[in-house]
Write a structure and sequence with these properties.
The complex is a heterotrimer of chains A (325), B (274) and C (255). Chain A is mainly alpha-helical and 325 residues long. Chain A has a domain at 25-247. Chain A has helices at residues 2-22, 27-51, 59-76, 81-103, 108-127, 130-133, 164-188, 190-200, 202-207, 212-238, 248-261, 268-282, 290-304, 310-313; strands at residues 148-150, 153-156. In chain A, strands 1-2 form a two-stranded antiparallel sheet. In chain A, strand 1 (148-150) and strand 2 (153-156) form a beta hairpin. Chain A starts with a helix and ends in a 12-residue tail after the last helix. Chain B is mainly α. Chain B has helices at 2-17, 24-41, 46-75, 80-101, 125-147, 149-159, 161-166, 171-193, 204-218, 223-243, 248-263; strands at 115-118, 121-124. In chain B, helix 1 runs antiparallel to helix 10 (223-243) and helix 9 packs across helix 10. The radius of gyration of chain B is 18 Å and the shape is globular. Chain C folds into two domains: 1-76 and 167-255, Rossmann fold; 87-166, no CATH class. Helices cover 42% and strands 22% of the residues of chain C. Chain C has ten helices and ten strands. Chain C has helices at residues 39-46, 69-75, 92-99, 108-113, 116-135, 151-164, 181-196, 208-214, 232-236, 239-253, and strands at residues 2-10, 13-22, 28-32, 54-59, 62-63, 77-79, 169-173, 200-204, 217-222, 225-230. In chain C, the strands form two sheets. In chain C, strands 6-7-8-3-9-10 form a six-stranded mixed β-sheet, sandwiched between helices. In chain C, strands 2-1-4-5 form a four-stranded antiparallel β-sheet, with helices on one face. The longest helix of chain C has 20 residues, at 116-135. Classes of the chains: A mainly alpha (325), B mainly alpha (274), C alpha/beta (255). At the A-B interface, helix 4, helix 5, helix 11 and helix 13 of A face helix 3, helix 4, helix 9 and helix 11 of B.
Chain lengths: 325, 274, 255
């Protein structure tokens, strides 16, 4: 237990202090790590749906919802990014709750297919959104996050005035840490056990008084919340959003990150996202063969480590603490 | 009709192996490219090209089944694994196509020229040919499944794997056959349609999505459902594009599908899920 | 508890046909009948795991028909499952602890923040779980993953889970199936013990010996219809019942 906490602290120090300081001028590296962080966040959301026993290929749809919410709010209504961010999360969560309520009754392949449809439908909705979403041209020139002041004190300076890449790195890092903390907390408290009971046997859970429908939607909406926040982030970091910003392939990737990191582990999606995304970038030199090698490696990992990368290092640690008497 | 080919292929694989072939669209693309090279570039007879497409893609399917899916099915504890493996294979084929064939769109000139007039509408001869060929293939497949021994074996496995095994059906062999056959169908569809629509390396995903939509409509794992789904989609598309130009059509189709699935998740003809 | 005219139709097949009976507080009521008589379906209807076609279920004066399954459980009507159903990947202890769910007082947010109420819940659940496991003789295996437990223990665990819900009415679905005489005797004692704690028990079972020993009253179903209702002695001598069982046997033997 001590070792784990120590490792976590070291990791945190590296992530929040060492790396950004050392690489603060390396735009490329910071960018890659930032993206990986946000991808991890989205994947954490997908992990939550895996936790209740559903295969979710629709996360891209909710990222899109979040992204467009931020875009529309900040461009059309001039709302500050710092308000847009939670708003996007909430918007995505709301849509998730509404859509999730009826579709979570489905399981397995059927649920997967319907979420796949969602991803595609979202893209088309954005494409045909008329004046609201600007269709194929997307929404451009989205302003960078502004400053946050409280009682005259500048808490967060306007991004314009900073090393933008570093600023975004920190934002992503903080969001990821918060997200990871949240999911870990959920996993280890009784909510996590409730979710697990849903995954293992919904009928039995109902017979012991678990409001199955409510908790399913809760998990799903929470996952969508993460996607929404991530979508908002990407929108401002790219300062634009298009219907094709998040699509079916992305949804599949998020799933793959979770899977390859290890579905039984809370940090699985994070590990998966970082390793895979960084791996992809590392293969950059292979040019045309980059994608191919990437796919080949991915399949190899799936063959040899079907329980994910983390199953290598953490043999007996399931997604919750082991039972202590 | 061509849609039916695609739908049947993916249904077959799903029925036999319980796997949603994410790579189905990519197999279609592969078939298209093979035909492009054999017929368009090397100038061989069109039908040879089509056959070559089928064989190539079938081999790919065999390799996938034998080395990838069989292994994962054996050692995995979670049900999601095979689906994710399928997604992985899709990526693999996608990138393979890109690496091998480059980014350009490739098309093939129509095999026959001329136009027929059918019920007052003009139908290009090439499309008529595709329709006939596709129809022939679909019928052949249906006959095969219904009346031949391997076909019956496949049906047995689709209905109840364990019982089939107990009755002496070699599951491994027929799984391979099923997968190869399903893949071949995708390849054939590609080979046929490359004369009308060009293919490029990235076209796989949208086609896979269409395949999924078809089996969602008709019911996954049921042959009649596949055909029905194909027709429903074809009609909806035609009607939709006629009245509403652009991609709004698809949006409405998708929304309609989602609502439909909420009430009837197993599609029109599917078995009740559980 | 009272069941009135409960009916379930599956397409053309009537699985449960206007079944009416009453369960008195604190008694053990067994429901027997040849295979396919609709006994399990009846349980599913009572606990809302299947929607009913017609009829009502009234519990403690309240109409609980049509309430969703988890609410029925919260009212105090709990069932066990025919196939031994437990949470496979959790340990026995974890299974029983989580089963206390409906006794929880903390809200979801409270759980997340680990408030004092949440912690109190957790502590009391644990104590209660220990006690239940002890009562059912499962203490030794409490940390074992549920799917590794032998059949007899799994059965007991299933009952433990149901007991954690603090039920007023417990519906046991074939608790004696697959047990040898020794295990059966022990289970009979266990069930009696539960009844003595004040729980009304409804039992679906094929093991006649156990049923006769345990039950205060018996109801017999055949083809979805109630054909008899009375004490064990009355049932043993009931014409219709004998007919139902023997008639069936004739069919099976081809006589």
């Amino acid at each position: 237990m001590r070792l784990r906490v120590a490792a976590a602290l070291v990791g945190l120090a590296l992530y929040l202090v060492v790396v950004p300081f050392v690489f603060r001028e390396s735009r490329y590296l910071l960018g890659v790590l930032t993206t990986a962080s946000v991808l991890s966040l989205i994947s954490l959301g997908v992990w939550l749906t895996f936790a209740i026993g559903r295969i979710n290929i629709g996360q891209a749809a909710f990222a899109l919802v979040g992204g467009y919410t931020t875009a529309i709010l900040s461009v059309k209504l001039g709302v500050s990014f710092w308000l847009c961010l939670p708003a996007s999360g909430l918007a995505a969560a709301l849509v998730g709750a509404v859509i999730g309520w009826p579709i979570l009754r489905l399981k397995g392949v059927y649920f997967a297919m319907i979420t796949l449809t969602l991803s595609e439908a979202a893209r088309l909705a954005a494409l045909n959104g008329g004046t609201i979403t600007q269709g194929a041209t997307g929404i451009l020139n989205i302003p960078l996050p502004g400053e946050v002041t409280f009682a005259g004190v500048v808490l967060v300076p306007a991004f314009r005035a900073l090393n933008v890449h570093l600023a975004f790195y920190y934002l992503a890092a903080i969001l990821l840490v918060l997200g990871l903390f949240t999911v870990t907390r959920i996993a280890s408290c009784r909510l996590g056990w409730i979710f697990r009971s849903l995954r293992q046997d919904e009928a039995l859970a109902a017979s012991i008084g678990v409001n199955v429908a409510k908790y399913r939607v809760l998990a799903f909406a929470l996952g969508c919340f993460f996607a929404g926040i991530a979508g908002a982030f990407f929108t401002v970091s790219q300062q634009s959003i298009y219907p094709s910003s998040f699509g079916v392939p992305d949804s599949v990737y998020f799933m793959l990150y979770c899977f390859l990191g290890g579905l039984s582990y809370v940090s699985g999606p994070v590990v998966g996202a970082f390793v895979l995304f960084l791996g992809f970038e590392l293969l950059h030199g292979l040019r045309e063969y980059q994608m191919l090698t990437y796919a080949a490696i991915m399949i190899t990992v799936m063959l040899w480590l079907p329980n994910g990368l983390l199953s290598l290092r953490l043999p007996a640690r399931p997604d919750m603490k082991a039972d202590t008497a | 009709m061509n849609y039916a080919l695609i739908a049947l292929g993916i249904t077959l694989i799903f029925a036999i192996m319980g796997v949603l072939n994410f790579a189905h669209g990519q197999m279609y693309v592969l078939g298209g490219f093979v035909t492009y090279y054999v017929y368009g570039v090397f100038g061989l007879n069109y039908f040879i090209a089509v056959a070559a497409s089928a064989v190539t893609v079938a081999c790919v399917g065999l390799v996938f089944e034998r080395f990838l899916f069989r292994r994962v099915l054996r050692i995995t504890t979670r049900e999601e694994s095979t689906m994710l493996l399928a997604a992985g294979t899709a990526l693999l084929l996608d990138s393979l196509s890109l690496a091998l064939f480059g980014e350009k769109q490739r098309g093939v000139a129509p095999v026959v020229a001329g136009v027929y007039e059918v019920f007052g509408a003009f139908v290009p001869a090439s499309r008529a040919l595709i329709f006939v060929l596709a129809g022939g293939l679909v019928s052949a497949l249906l006959l095969f499944i219904q009346y031949t021994r391997p076909g019956r074996a496949l049906r047995a496995i689709a209905q109840d794997k364990e019982t089939a095994a107990l009755q002496g059906v070699d599951i491994d062999r027929y799984s391979a056959l099923g997968f190869a056959l399903g893949a071949a169908l995708a390849g054939l569809a590609g080979a046929l349609l490359v004369t009308v629509f060009a293919v490029n390396a990235g076209a796989g995903t949208p086609i896979s999505i269409k395949a999924f939509i078809m089996i969602m409509i008709g019911g996954a794992g049921v042959v009649s459902g596949a055909i029905l789904g194909a027709f429903v989609l074809g009609f909806s598309e035609a009607l939709g594009y006629f009245f509403i130009p652009g991609s709004t059509t698809y949006l409405m189709i998708l929304v309609g599908l989602i609502v439909f699935l909420i009430f009837r998740p197993q599609g029109i003809m599917g078995k009740p899920w559980g | 508890m009272e069941v009135r005219d409960l009916t379930k139709r599956f397409g053309g097949l009537v699985a449960v046909d206007h079944v009416t009976f009453q369960a008195n507080e604190g008694e053990v009521l067994s429901i027997i009948g040849p295979n396919g008589a609709g006994k399990s379906t009846l349980f599913k209807l009572i606990t809302s795991f299947l929607p009913r076609t017609a009829g009502r279920v009234i519990f403690q004066g309240e109409d609980i028909t049509g309430l969703s399954a988890h609410l029925v459980a919260r009212k105090g009507v709990v069932r066990t499952f025919q196939e031994t159903t437990i949470f496979k990947e959790m340990s026995a202890l974890e299974n029983v602890v989580i089963a206390h769910h409906l006794r929880g007082r903390a809200t979801s947010v409270g759980l997340f923040l680990n408030t004092r109420v949440a912690r109190q819940d957790e502590a009391s659940f644990r104590d209660s779980a220990d006690e239940i496991l002890d009562y059912l003789g499962l203490s030794r295996v409490r940390h074992e993953k549920a799917r590794r437990l032998p059949h007899g223990y799994l059965r007991a665990l299933g009952i433990a889970i149901a007991m954690a819900c603090d039920p007023k009415v417990l519906l046991l679905d074939e608790p004696f199936s697959g047990m040898n005489p020794e295990e059966t005797d022990r289970m009979v004692e266990t069930v009696r013990g539960i009844r003595d704690r004040g729980v009304t028990i409804l039992l679906v079972e094929h093991d006649m010996r156990a049923v006769m020993r345990l039950s205060d009253r018996i109801i017999v179903l055949n083809f979805g219809r109630k054909i008899a209702d009375g004490t064990p002695r009355e049932i043993q001598n009931d014409e219709a019942v004998i007919e139902a069982y023997i008639g069936r046997e004739d069919d099976e033997l081809g006589i």
